[in-house]
Amino acid sequence: MRLGSCLYQGNSVVFVESDGHYYLPSLQNAHATFWKDIQTLIADPKRDEKLAEFSPNKSCMVGLEDIQLLAPIPRPNKNIICMGLNYFDHIVEAADFAGRNAKTPKAPIVFTKSNFSVIGPGTPIPADPDISEQLDWEVELGVIIGKTGKAIKPEHVQDHIFGYTIINDISARDLQFAHKQFYIGKSIDGGCPMGPVIVSKDEIPNAQQLQLSCRVNGVDKQTGSTEQMIFDIEQIIVTLSKTMTLEAGDVIATGTPNGVGFARTPPEFLKSGDVVECEIESIGVLSNPVV
After folding, report:
1. What is the pLDDT of residue 31?
2. Cα(55)–Cα(81) distance, rounded to whole angstroms?
3. DSSP letter at 284?
């Protein structure tokens, strides 16, 4: 199933996308409350049963012009959990930029982005020179946790995944380098485009074999595959859940391939008027203007 969040007549509700059409199940009587908030939906113990009951029909079909797409989880309950330097080619380009040897990390590098940085498809990424003059792009596969758990065993990881989405981990490199840590440069308001949908895990049998790419103004900047991850999704969830409880609705960004702006010669950064498109196979395209 492909689902997300949207504004309809001033209210945030869950939509289902099927064959290019949009449906608002909350317009029907069955489980109307269940379909109004996606975090409530994900955490519902009878979620799968209720999702299976929905069948697209014209009584709840709306035009794209009737809704405003939001991030699938418009305001996550917690910060976005992120993996740093999880593709070796990205490690190489970062090391070359810094003039050091590339080294594969022995354990996942973990940081977070503020939940207030999340925006939806089509929402402008703010380019405020008073905040940053070095906004960079990073296409990433996002994993949505579907079942709360702690100390999750490898064989149970799939039981705790709800689905997958696209994340653009916008990074203010000047802030990142000045403060010598990730958080402030990764957490600018509007710096986490997400969407356009969450695709349930049953529709993506192997999330470790997805092509991903990023384009700026139609020009390819990043291309790669999730099979290039150093620490795969299973390892990430096992590692995180050893020390923290992962809750239904948590969002994990799994890292980016090479091709980011700061490591280019000369460096390239986003500016007002640009359009950034992040694409992942089987999920779609996440497009945002820069203003």
Report:
1. 84
2. 33
3. E
Length of the chain: 291
The sign of the dihedral angle between the CA atoms of 104, 285, 1, 8 is: positive
Q: Domains plus CATH for the chain?
A: 2-69 (no CATH), 80-289 (3.90.850.10)
Q: Which two tokens stand for residue 124?
A: 């402008």
Residue 220 pLDDT = 99
Strands (E) located in the chain: 2-8, 11-18, 21-23, 61-62, 68-69, 80-84, 109-113, 118-119, 135-136, 139-145, 161-168, 171-172, 192-200, 211-216, 219-225, 251-253, 275-280, 284-289
Phi, psi of 86 (to 5 degrees): -105, 5
Mean pLDDT of 60-81: 98
What is the number of alpha carbons within 13 Å of residue 232 lying toward its C-beta? Answer: 13
Nearest of 61, 16, 64, 20 to residue 41 by alpha carbon: 16
Residue 19, φ and ψ in degrees, nearest 5: 55, 40
pLDDT digits (tens, 9 = 90+) for 224-233: 999 999 999 9
What are φ and ψ of residue 177, in 5° steps? -75, -35
